[in-house]
Amino acid sequence: MALAKPITPQNITSPLTKHATFLVLTVNRPNPDGLPEPTAIKAIQTTLSTIDSLSKTISIRDQDAAFACTVGIGAALWPALVPTIPPPRELRPFAPVHGSVHSAPSTPGDLFFHVRSQRRDLNFEFERLLLEGPFDKAVSVVDATEGWRYFDVRDLLGFVDGTANPVSGGIGMGDLVIAAGEDVGGEGGSYVVVQKYVHDMKAWQGLKAEEQERIIGRTKWDNVELADAEHGEQASHKTLATVEDGQGGEYSILRDNMPFGAPGRGEFGTYFIGYSARLWVIERMLQRMFVGEPPGKYDRLLDYSTPLTGTTFFVPSASLLAGLGE
Ligand code: HEM
């Protein structure tokens, strides 16, 4: 009897590092039918099937640097790239969200690379080697953002970001983040949503710290959670971004947000990245933030933070990626 191949996830739950590169690519579609060339698909399959060995090429050079790369695939590319496995059941393009004041746009992306380590040079080297040869000819870079650790894991608004994340090895981390067998095409993988936000720092810094804390739902200096607002009152970001499971628990997601930007360019940003075993959970969070709960009482964080991008991918298991070259 042949043994079933074990399903190994990619390094989704790797710890937050000091540096991360977020690469969003589209596949070139030069012909009027809008389909990628078979040679392009082949080049991408070959590259993705060898991502593990490219990662090893980099990580061996400093084993303390916690190098990891996860690869995501968009809904439009899945059928051509992975023809023998049905798409994960919730995989669909990022749905734009329109609130009364703020909107979250949907922007293009077929492939996503979340590259992270303690060293900027390792991430650079990975990106350099990845974007070489036939793969580079098959794709176009839509966005490449460099994120970095800001003090004690703070965002550029000055708040500690990532506290409520599920903890590696803790209760539910696997269930919350890695899709189970009932998601046939998605087993062992994770939905990932990315949004690149820019902040109006001048307006944010014009607020008193207490007002900023009410908007976020935590104290700024020591990161202590504030009580939820009364039902129907203006809720904080923390409350609006919480999706309950109806049994006293929450559908937590894994966020690896990173600050990015350069004061000399007037650029101050947060790269939002959320992994979940259930795409609808992140979509529900975005509805609650942009439309508000109750509708109209939207997340005040958005008065100071504008999303420039919004894209959804599926990060398949490492086993599926490795099999693409067969
Ligand atoms: C919590 C910042 C966008 C989901 C937080 C916290 C901060 C923060 C400071 C409190 C500490 C923590 O638990 O991490 C930001 C910034 C954003 C952003 C600066 C972009 C400008 C988003 C988006 C989502 C989201 C787009 C989901 C779609 C969450 C969740 C929590 C959270 C689930 C934890 C809530 C809880 O306490 O259970 N965020 N966030 N955030 N955020 Fe965001």
Head-to-tail CA distance between termini:
22 Å
Mean pLDDT: 95
Proportion in helices: 25-40%
How many distinct helices?
11
Q: Major beta sheet, specifics? A: 6 strands, antiparallel
Describe this structure in words.
The protein is α+β, with helices and mostly antiparallel strands and 326 residues long. The protein has one domain (19-323). The protein is built from eleven helices and twelve strands. It has helices at 38-49, 51-59, 78-81, 120-130, 133-138, 173-177, 201-205, 209-216, 237-240, 279-290, 318-323, and strands spanning 19-27, 68-73, 97-98, 103-104, 111-117, 139-148, 190-199, 254-255, 258-262, 267-276, 305-307, 311-315. The strands form three sheets. Strands 7, 8, 9, 10, 11 and 12 form a six-stranded antiparallel β-sheet that branches. A four-stranded antiparallel β-sheet has the order 2-5-1-6. A hairpin with a 4-residue loop joins strand 9 and strand 10. Helix 2 packs antiparallel against helix 4 (120-130). The longest helix is centred in the first third of the chain and has 12 residues, at 38-49. The chain is globular and about 55 Å long. The two termini are 22 Å apart. 44% of the residues are buried. The model has no long low-confidence stretch (mean pLDDT 95). InterPro entries: Dimeric_a/b-barrel, Dyp_perox_C, Dyp_perox_N, Dyp_peroxidase. GO terms for molecular function: heme binding; metal ion binding; peroxidase activity. Belongs to the DyP-type peroxidase family. Residues 153-318 form the Dyp-type peroxidase C-terminal domain. Keywords: Iron, Metal-binding, Oxidoreductase, Peroxidase.
